[in-house]
Specification:
The protein is an alpha/beta fold. It folds into 3 domains: about 5-105 and about 255-330, 3-Layer(bba) Sandwich (FAD/NAD(P)-binding domain); about 110-255, FAD/NAD(P)-binding domain; about 345-403, no CATH class. The protein is about 25% helix and about 25% strand.
Length: about 400
């Protein structure tokens, strides 16, 4: 009898898991993707949208037809609650039963944790969907049109996706220099990390000094161990009472996993991230797998201000391959693969240059660490985006050198 595999989410983790499963499993097994979004967005390029160097159409792709051609069903719906005891998931539009479940829903943004934070009810901007990026673009354009001001880029306490604010801060510097008005603006980056380039994993060798030198050359101010108190239309205030003029602010909040996973003993931690063993299966419910941001991954060391561990797109796709392999092994037999031996490859872009980073494993001490800066890394990121989107649209082979 065929198995029913339900994949929650259609971004890097969900799309990759579903397509990898389809290659491994016979047609007697059904695969359904349920996602609140019917388009795939290449999230690493959203900083380029903010500074006006990319339009949304270039980094989005409708998923339903593509999945259907691969023999995968797609339903657009928002998941409300998982019921693992009955192998059922409740959505706003219906219920979905499964034999195996893959949680790849990404994150929920915790703007409510800090008064005034966020683009909808608050006075700061964000970078995790096209709508947020376009809102940030309009606000940044307005701030620049005033030809002077204070531009703030920050990671709030508990934030884990730390790289975008580095990128947008440096891109904004590049943008202002091209307009020959850089001297009219103050750019400040504040972060919950204990040092620049800590990134929730203890840092990457000399990358901290590379970033400090880069910021010094660009006249970008920075402060670490930062903890936000509140955000108003006029100011961003820290918990030590220091206030910064808020002509524009882009601030990354802490994440929840999903409220749909909360309150179930053994399934998730208190913030809704799925608990998983080394094979990415939940210890209590072995037919539930976690991929990407949905996976609970505790920080390796304590920090003065809480810092989460990032899950990059490249890491997420690696997890997706492991989850697909292990589900197929559960169904067809065979050995399973471990999924927490993380490697990471990423590129932090500045528009006129970029910093390339590759580390194995993710947490120190490491067997391999490569980092370099240059225009070639910038063009590598551009090329990867274009190839990746072409691979979705036209079925080209995947490349896995990261972003």
């Amino acid at each position: 009898m065929g198995k029913r595999i339900l994949v929650l989410g259609s971004s890097f983790g969900g799309y990759r898991t579903a397509t990898a499963l389809r290659k491994r499993l016979g047609k007697e097994h059904s695969i359904r993707v349920v996602s609140s979004e019917n388009v795939f967005t290449f999230v690493p390029s959203l900083p380029w949208v903010i500074v006006g160097w990319r339009e949304p159409a270039a980094i989005q792709f409708p998923v339903a037809d593509s999945l259907a051609r691969k023999g995968i069903d797609f339903t657009q719906d928002t998941i409300v609650k998982v019921d693992p005891d009955n192998n059922r998931v409740a959505g706003r539009n219906g219920d979905y039963e499964y034999d195996y479940l893959v949680a790849a829903t990404g994150s929920e943004l915790d703007f409510e944790a800090i008064p005034g934070l966020g683009p909808d009810k608050g006075h700061s901007h964000s970078v995790f969907c096209v709508q947020q990026a376009l809102g940030a673009r309009a606000a940044l354009d307005w701030a620049i049109s005033r030809e002077s001001g204070s531009l703030l880029f920050g990671n709030a306490q508990g934030a884990s996706c730390l790289g975008p604010v580095y990128e947008v801060a440096m891109m904004t510097d590049t943008l202002l220099r091209r307009k020959k008005i850089r001297s009219k603006f103050r750019i400040l980056l504040f972060t919950n990390e204990p040092c620049l380039g800590h990134f929730g994993v203890g840092g990457f060798g000399r990358v901290t000094r590379m970033l400090e030198d880069e910021f010094a050359d660009r006249d970008i101010e920075w402060r670490v161990n930062s903890k936000l108190a509140h955000v108003t239309p006029e100011e961003v205030e820290m918990d030590d009472g220091v206030k910064y003029k808020n002509d524009f602010s882009l601030i990354v909040p802490a994440f929840f996993g999903s409220h749909a996973y909360m309150g179930i003993d053994g399934l998730s931690n208190p913030r809704g991230f799925i608990l998983a063993d080394d094979y990415l299966a939940n210890p209590e419910y072995q037919n539930i797998y976690a991929v990407g941001v949905s996976l609970a991954l505790p920080p390796p060391v304590a920090t003065p201000t809480p810092v989460g561990v990032p899950k990059t797109g490249q890491m997420t796709e690696a997890m997706a391959d492991v989850a697909a392999h292990n589900i197929a092994a559960d169904i067809n037999g065979g050995s399973k693969r471990r999924g927490k031996e993380f490697e990471v490859t990423c590129i932090a872009d500045a528009g006129d240059t970029a910093i390339y980073l590759s580390a194995s494993p993710l947490f120190p001490p490491r067997d391999k660490l490569i980092h370099r800066k240059g225009k070639s890394a910038h063009y590598m990121k551009v090329a990867f985006e274009k190839y990746y989107m072409a691979s979705l649209r036209y079925g080209l082979p995947n490349l896995d050198f990261g972003w």
